[in-house]
Amino acid sequence: MTGRTPGRARPAAPWVRTRLRSAPGAAAALALLVAVTAFLAAALPLAVDRYGDAGLRRSMEVAGPGRTSVQLYASQDEAFMPQEEWEAQLRPDAVRGPYAKLFALPGRALPLDPGQSSHGVRTTRRLAAPDPYLSRPDGLAPEFHLVAPSGLAGHSRLREGRLPKAPDDVTAATTAVEAAVTAETARKLNIGVGSVVHVPGVERAPLTVRVTGVVEPRAPREAYWSTTPVLRGPSLLTVPGDPQRSVFWVGALLLPPDAAPALLGTGGIPERYWTLAPEVSALHGHDLPRLTSAVASLEAGPLLQRARTAASPAVHAETSLDEVFAGYTGLRSVIGPLVAVAAFGTGTVAAVVLLMAGGLAADRRRAELTLLRARGASLRGLTGRLLAETAVVAVPAAALGLAAARLAVGGGRLSYAVAAVGAVALLASVALPLRAVAAHRAVRVHAARDDLVSARPSRRRTVAELTLLTLAAGAVVALRTRGTPDGEGASGDELVSLAPVLVGVIAALVLVRLYPLPLRGLARPAGRLRGVVGPLSLARAGRTSGSAVLPLLALLTALTTAAFGGSVLTGVADARDRAAVLAVGADARIEGLRPLPSGLADRVRRAPGVRDVTAVSVSYEGLPSGGRLTVPVAGVEPAGYAALSRHTDTGAFDPDELEASGGGTLPALASPEVADRYGTRPFRVRLDDGSDITVRIVEVRERTPALAGLEFLVVDRSGLPGGPARATALLVTGDRPDAGALREAAGSAAQVRLRVEQFAKYVDSPLQSGAERVYTAAVAAGAGYAVLALLLTLLRAAPERAALLARLRTMGLTRAQGRRLLVLESLPQALLAAVGGTVTAWAAVRLLSPGIDLTTVAVSASSSPAGRAALRTDPVSLLVPALAVVALTVGIAAAQAWWTGRRGSVRELRAGDAR
Q1: pLDDT of residue 875
Q2: d(CA 481, CA 468)
Q3: In Å, how far are 238, 325, 431, 704, 748 from 596, measured between CA atoms?
Q4: Across the chain, what does the average pLDDT equal?
Q5: For residues 158 and 756, what is the distance between their CA atoms, to the nearest angstrom?
Q6: Are 126 and 297 in contact (CB under 8 A)?
Q7: So what's the pLDDT on residue 192?
Q8: How far, CA to CA in Å, does 484 sit from each of 86, 313, 394?
Q9: What is the pLDDT of residues 617-633, one digit of tens each?
Q10: Residue 499 and residue 765: Cα distance in Å, rounded?
Q11: Is 866 exposed, middle or buried (0-12, 13-18, 19+ CB in 10 A)?
Q12: What are phi and psi of 456, to 5 degrees?
């Protein structure tokens, strides 16, 4: 027999372990909620950084190395040097020497690509080569740039011959050098291995350049070859001022670096150059201020001064990288605040759900906590134990969510994700302790009645509501007066992005105050009704807890954010579709530079998806008499073209007004600019082929399907002369015409453009598509949290409702009446949330729409063919979520009544249970 050792007390079981073992389901549910919330909170900044980086890199790719590379060059300081010093400056060592210092100048501020950066010597003027065997499209001699680049062997593959070599001791007097050409240059200019090109000299015999090899660029689109595109292939240029528009070839001859001094004997005015190519994969959107500063310093700042010290006092810099960064900044500054609206809305709903979860746990444990306080537990000790209990679950779950977000999204700045996850873990940890402190600050045995009808707002609550009202009004006024924040301060103006959330907050507080009024007014009339279900359900609705602000706030914020997001996405899609319609003119457009074949329209009509084809003849260079500006003229068949105008909702008109009457003057439909210029008097117009027509403006429309500009004339095609009357374009309508069939029917005679393809072109930046995906995900997450808030609200009242139904069934209440009772009891709050959410969302969109321009988001440009893309309310986004709230509430109430009826009444009626 063992005995207890005197003086030693048995250690008490640890609080945290005991609580986790006693309620593992609640702990698991909290861990799941925190993990999912932490995952979403961490994924948002990571995704924003990811699509921001992809958008910047896409902007760099679209701009091309010719605009994004920084070119440093020096030539003017050598103008008055002795010949020997001038030659020494062009030798490889003199060019290679400063390169390392110049490459290191930007440092980490502007990452550079060592593999694509280069240096060398090139001529600044083109030199005509009179050799007769060279290609001459219009009989004009081709012109060449002589370039001595570094690293030619490493950036090309030898296809024929060998790489060029320089003779010993090349000077300005050297008469012959070797060169290589690219395969494209050799093919287009009729150059082969062994060809000799004679370049005119200055006060000396021509420089003989013998081609010894043909090379193929390894990466022709990278900076080494594309910073100066003529290196990889020749281009056709038009003779300036030539009415015949004669063209000639411009190519490049690639000399070895040691042969650079020979360029001094030509009229090409050689210069040293150093090309600094940015490392595109190392650029990040959040580093844009630092990148912009580095580029500005290289163009005209301290870095340029250091470059002149390292290479030559006459070094100059040239790049369009600052313009590329500015364009990206403009697009990001418009997209960022819109995404912030969704992020703040979803974050608010998620925070409310976490607080509701803590409140639910505190309500379920009210008897336990009341007993602990009555037995002497201190408020500080109780708070610390509850904090430890929730933190031991929330912190690991939040870390798991962070790890999952890092694996799922990747990239981006980890610090922002960690901060977001830390906020989630902190809120989840303190929700239960704070609610317990508020409820059990004073020691009491029975809690006071907290009916919604009997509750009276305190002064503190009134002050808080007025403060939030002031903030919301200020945010809305700011957004209406100056639009969404842009520029460098966009990230710091969170108040404007919070405006829809604040509107939802105010609506929730106002509705909670107004909600008791109809309940009080209906209480007395309902008591005179026959039956027990109606009066009892109304009384039960009035006895709802007065702390209904949080669930109502969650629902209203979610509905407002969903409607705002749906309106944004719908507005963007509508703007793109409208811009695509105006750019193409129909569902598809087939157009050629010359009149189309006569049987093409019939072949197109037989293509899948084609419903109708409208033939149009377009004369883009119509010249009205007495005017100096040309006006495009479209000849159409009035009836078919009027139907097309109605189908596209673009300048619809009465076809009878446009039909030619057989006289000499044709009725015309004109744009407002043309109508203001020429009025309604008849005037002559010379068409592209030199023929004349006389027109009189009878209709004015801002737009027309056949012509996308702001100036146009549309006339009856039957009144045009024979040549201009032949169709040059076919406007196709139908249900998604088959692109392959249309291109097969058109052949090489015309170009085919489709409305759907033009629509897709407007999403040319990952910044746009990424922002739309993030916005959609944020709205979906907000909707999910709203549903969870609704479930938590009903779950909180579930035990009391089950006990009520059990007691009422002993008094004769049927199961059908029990279902109606729970449904009718839930309907007032559901209708309040649905109607309030719809009105709030509509008001938020209407209030904020004047300050929001979706044009840049829709078409990735500051202007659109369809004009300004304004934010408009989307009925589907307004009504569907609200109806879903009502349906879900009714469904849950009916399911609870059904389940309670199956379980029976014995368990609910046990004596001593606290309900």
Answers
A1: 85
A2: 20
A3: 27, 43, 73, 21, 11
A4: 82
A5: 43
A6: no
A7: 92
A8: 57, 46, 36
A9: 888 888 888 777 889 99
A10: 28
A11: buried
A12: -125, 125
Cβ contact 696:726 at 8 Å: no
The answer to whether the Cα torsion of 318, 324, 326, 327 is positive or negative is: positive
Q: At what angle do helices 499-514 and 459-482 cross, to 10 degrees?
A: 140
Give kind and range of the element (H or E) at residue 516. Answer: helix 516-527
Which among 640, 699, 639 has a CA at the least distance from the CA of 668? 699
Measured CA to CA, the distance from residue 169 to residue 262 in angstroms comes to: 10
pLDDT digits (tens, 9 = 90+) for 421-462: 999 999 999 988 888 887 777 666 555 555 555 556 667 767
Q: Would you put residue 106 in left (φ > 0), alpha (ψ -120 to 50) or beta?
A: alpha
Which tokens sit at 5?
């050792």
Q: Report residue 152 as tokens.
A: 């030619």
Strand bridging mode 176-182 / 207-217? parallel
Distance CA 343, CA 775 (A): 8
Burial (Cβ within 10 Å: 0-12, 13-18, ≥19) of residue 793: buried
Whether 785 contacts 350, CB under 8 Å: yes
Cα 166 from Cα 168, distance rounded (Å): 7
**To 5 degrees, how large is the angle CA 674–CA 679–CA 681?**
125
pLDDT at 801 over 50: yes
Tens digits of residue pLDDT in 116-164: 999 999 999 999 999 999 999 888 999 999 999 999 999 999 999 999 9
For residue 189, name the pLDDT band (cuts at 50, 70, 90).
very high
Q: How far apart are CA 302 and CA 831, in angstroms?
A: 66
Angle separating helix axes 533-542 and 516-527, nearest 10 degrees: 150
Phi, psi of 688 (to 5 degrees): -60, -35
CA separation, residue 165 to residues 156, 210, 726 (Å): 16, 11, 59
For residues 273 and 227, the answer to whether their CB atoms sit within 8 Å is no
